[in-house]
């Protein structure tokens, strides 16, 4: 769970909201920019949801959270604590993620050369299948190499990761243009041979709630 929870937040920020410069040339570049029809539907839905409540008053809503959808007893990645600053996350500000967790199986770097240059073929490592949705709209479906993504987000924790207790710190910038909506992230951790799911995480961040600060 350590990498699942933190990587999911970081992936939502860096992969979905990132500037194009953070991607390799030729790689897919997920964007928040939607087609006219989708954007209109999003704006309409966000406006309606933001006005829910008695006499036009908004309900107090928790702005982010996560649940473990994997097998707790068999999960080799377990989180013990998870904090974000600011809490809740705010568009247009830097988001810092701090976590502590236990790793029961060594996580190897998939290919040291691949982290430095795209000239080398990618060897399979532990990966994360990530799906990001905005309501019923699927914004992103992509497989990420966990070790490579830790490098991309300049995490304090890097591969190889030995069994034991580890602290994780990473920071990402959230653009001010994030739509006022609820984003749901599903992440499944897959073994290098694609034969076993070693973890599952559902995470959501709600930007519908107006900023009171």
TrEMBL record:
Its keywords, alphabetically, are: Lipid transport, Signal, Transport
Q: Which SMART domains match?
A: ML
Q: Does the keyword Transport apply?
A: yes
Q: Does the keyword Transport apply?
A: yes
Cite the Gene3D superfamilies for this sequence.
Answer: Ganglioside GM2 activator
Top-level lineage group: Eukaryota
Domain spans labelled MD-2-related lipid-recognition: 66-205
Q: Which residues form the signal peptide?
A: 1-18
Q: How does it assemble?
A: Monomer.
Q: Which family does it belong to?
A: Belongs to the NPC2 family.
Q: What does this protein do?
A: Catalyzes the intermembrane transfer of phosphatidylglycerol and phosphatidylinositol.
Name the PANTHER family for this protein.
NIEMANN PICK TYPE C2 PROTEIN NPC2-RELATED (PTHR11306), PHOSPHATIDYLGLYCEROL_PHOSPHATIDYLINOSITOL TRANSFER PROTEIN (PTHR11306:SF0)
* Protein name, entry field: Phosphatidylglycerol/phosphatidylinositol transfer protein
């Amino acid at each position: 769970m350590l990498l699942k929870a933190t990587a999911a937040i970081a992936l939502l920020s860096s992969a979905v909201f990132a500037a194009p410069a953070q991607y390799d040339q030729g790689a897919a570049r997920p964007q928040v920019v939607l087609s006219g029809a989708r954007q209109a539907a999003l704006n309409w839905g966000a406006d309606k949801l933001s006005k829910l409540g008695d006499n036009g008053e908004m309900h107090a809503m928790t702005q982010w959270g996560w649940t473990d959808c994997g097998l707790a007893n068999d999960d080799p990645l377990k989180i013990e604590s998870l904090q974000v600053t600011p809490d809740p996350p705010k568009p247009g500000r830097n988001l810092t993620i701090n976590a502590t967790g236990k790793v029961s199986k060594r996580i190897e770097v998939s290919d040291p050369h691949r982290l430095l240059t795209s000239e080398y073929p990618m060897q399979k490592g532990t990966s994360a299948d990530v799906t990001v949705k905005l309501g019923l709209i699927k914004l992103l479906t992509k497989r990420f190499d966990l070790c490579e993504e830790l490098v991309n987000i300049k995490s304090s924790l890097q591969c190889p990761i030995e069994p034991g207790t580890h602290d994780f710190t990473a920071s990402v910038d959230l653009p001010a243009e994030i739509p006022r909506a609820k984003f749901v992230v599903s992440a499944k951790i897959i073994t290098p041979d694609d034969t076993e799911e070693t973890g599952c995480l559902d995470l959501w961040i709600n930007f519908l709630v107006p900023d009171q600060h």
